[in-house]
Known about the structure:
Helix content is 66%, strand content 9%. It has 405 residues and is α+β, with helices and mostly antiparallel strands. Helix 4 runs antiparallel to helix 5 and helix 11 packs antiparallel against helix 12.
Amino acid sequence: MLIRPFRLLRDRFWRGDWAGPYEVRFAAVVSVWVRWCVAALCVALIVQRPFDYPASQYTSYWVFVGLLIVFNGLVHHRLWSGRTLPGRWMLALSATDVALVTGLVWISGGFSTLFTHLLYYPALAAFAVLFTSLKLNLVWVTLVALTYTLVCLAAGGGLDWDAREDVTLVVRVAVMYTVVLAVNLVARFERFGRMRATERERALQQERIDLSQSIHDTAAQSVYMIGLGVESARALAVNSNAELSETLAATSQLSRSVMWELRRSIDAGRLFEGRDLGSVLREHTETFQRITSVPTRMTQSGVEPDLSVDTRSRLFSIAHNALTNAFRHSDAGRVDVVLDFKVDGIRLTVEDDGVGLPNDYAQRGRGFAGMKTEAERMGGQLLATSGRPGEGTSVTCVIPIERTG
């Protein structure tokens, strides 16, 4: 009998009103730091003892602050460790915040307290960010306002009607509603804007996926067939005509170079399909070996974290450009690609045993400049080292893994 009314209430006020993962995490991070500020303020006030409260009341304050610190520490640890906070957790956090503030108002003397009622406002604002439903927010702020009103009537000396404290109470409650409505409207506007941007990004990603598939089905196949034809012509020419053989060899090299560049768009499209960087890069290096006939090995250590498409694409671009340089300029007999995932960062290394880098390599073309720019945009750095001829070149990109909270 009670299940059906609960489901109706959930469907009317709850379902579909959760904020997205980004908004939930943002609200959680902000609320965590607000709680730390509140805890620091409470500790400072208790230590300074600006009010003439009995010892038992100060003891109650210490209990309140201790609960707040422990509670907030657990939430902050979960955020710092990278784990997600489901929407129901955030609902529980909002309810706990209200309960703690209500307890503080009670032990402070109810309405007569000078500042504790202000702590309701950030708790209500966090709730307004998490839920886009205006109805749900109105229900929540009404419950909070009713609770605060009852505490003011029951705690301490109650309301001084002759001093018109009832008017002040109405103003405080009105500010609660104002805060909730203002924050909720802003949050709704920001969320809808973010949803539109996400939809545009998804459409762009789908276009990239379609383009990579189109290249694979048309241009890449055509270049592959041209390459087979050139190789057949080289086999027929043998050494009958030195000039023809040189021309065919150059044409073969050019066809392989074009085929390799086409593979960049084809394999990059898989990143937009949701594939992880490690698997795509492994297939990309295997394709590099088939096209160039240069022995290539890819190794990976550590567990790949949840990286954004942008980060995966930039790391893939750096690896592709480094492999391209090894193919075109190094005359390498071996190439190694190492992808290392650590707790605090990612290291990508492409190393060959070719002729090494010239002294003015940074000024030649846009390859290294482009790789350096990609690394810097991810908050990392690009390092290129080269030894004597035969010792080859090593290109390393190191980027941090940012944590929020």
